[in-house]
Amino acid sequence: MEKAGGSPSLGGSYPQKNAEILSSQYGINLFLAGLLLTFAWAVHAVGISKSHLLSYLITLMLIQLLWMLWYLCRSCTQRRLIRDKDTHAGARWLKCGITLFAVITLILDSFKIGYYIDFSNCLSPTEGIFPVTHAVHTILQVHFLWCHAKDIIQSFKTLERFGVIHSVFTNLLLWTNGVLTESKHQLNEHKERLITLGFGNITIVLDDHAPQCNCTTTTLCSIFSQGIYYLYPFNIEYHILASTMLYVLWKNIGRKVEHHQQHKTPFKFHGITIGMVFGLIVLTSTIAIVVVYLIQIGRSKIKSELALTMFYLHAIFVLALMCTAGIVALLIYRLEDRSLDNSKNPARKLDAELLVGTAAGSWLLSWGSILAIICAQAHPKYTWYNLPYSVLVIIEKYIQNLFIIESIHREQEKVNDDIKTLRIVTISRGSTLSLTPSYKEIYNGRAAHDNGEVPCLFKGSICGRENDGGGAKEEMSQDKSSVLHSASDFSFYSRNSVTNNKRRILKNIAAFLFLCNLSLWIPPAFGCRPEYDNGLEEIVFGFEPWIIVVNLAMPFSIFYRMHSAASLFEVNCKT
């Protein structure tokens, strides 16, 4: 009987694993083909134009739209069926975040449509079809993720695996296209800035993909062309968030989940005032630094050097504060004795892997800068600030990753479920005294509220009984000595006070780091990139090799900050 019962599970798991491998290989090949096409367009390969790349992306989006429509229709017909849900996936704050990025992405698409209309005489029709298709794709995908991000698919599993993985890699290709387009624009500006820093030996050849015709409305064309590049950072974050949520959905296909109560962890501003105030100060100062940097850089050699020095000093100060906050949080964790939750959780596992994986991008840039400072023969004054900055970037990510990963793996306290307030009533000449029983009494089950029995809370044995029938009340015996709490009560309340203080400190640290990561996301996302403008790395490694390294590593560095902010928001809710 045991063998017969065991064979179906073995037989069922084999095709399921087979489908997972096949679908993942399909997705990887889909992505590699698109990646090669994107690269060919970027280097102006013979016979490859932007219309070929956009046609490929449009085809992928249309296939995903058909799959999502089929899934939504099938879900509507099976609305009454009870489905398993992954309570850890698709948190509400994550859905709100992706919705915000999606709204800004729709504005970007409208700018692209306006740009195409103004240059319609010399642009391919695919450049007009692409933003329209992308806008429809964005609207339907956000609706799909709001309604089905938590689903654990148990039917049509093989087909659904291919549909979901297709969606994952479609979003990754759209992310790659956005990163490349934005990077090419940043690179053109960077080449012009290097002249002001005295690096005249670098050949300035702008990689221009501008239309070869005049705009019908000059003012509108300028607004559209400039506005597009300020909106790209939000489009990039939208697609990477969508791909991660869809990847969790793919990992959950066919998964068996344990049904247990999930504690809701709403975000509350109460108790995190200090962390929010310091974080907002950092955020405000960072925005000011970015504005001044973008105004000053490239104007003259002196102004460019001052802008770089200002950026490095501000970043060093912020990173030092973040390192200190992270160390304090880790020390608090070392003082606590709480077990870790090692249950299977695809969303949590992906969060940890993304933190470490994307941190490697900024680590690569930091080690490149450190090596350039050591090996360079000439050192302008502003480049010396790059050394402590690069070292602190490496250390801060080490500490922050440890804090976040341990936080999301720590089991939540269940004190709030165990401690319940009971009403103890004593009658003394018509007066009523409401008290709270000790945790020990409640935990042992001696506070039975349903039958009117209440625990003895004090050494004086003050016990009372509440008569639900109303009217007659008994007066219980009372010790003549003063009312004193038991030693166990004092011990519990003392421990509870210490625990609350630790939690308050941790919540303030998480709130502070959350705002700091948002602050550090802003500079590289909006063009404040000293790795481009420093100039020292280009001399040591060569212009083209260093630019390739920066263009490969920078997107991961930018994503790390946004992903860290999202993880820290979850930590704040959970603490």
TrEMBL record:
An annotated Gene Ontology molecular function: proton channel activity
GO (cellular component) term, any one: plasma membrane
Record flagged with keyword Magnesium: no
Protein name: OTOP1 protein
Signal sequence range: none
Superkingdom of this protein's organism: Eukaryota
Membrane-protein topology: Multi-pass membrane protein
Gene name of the record: Otop1
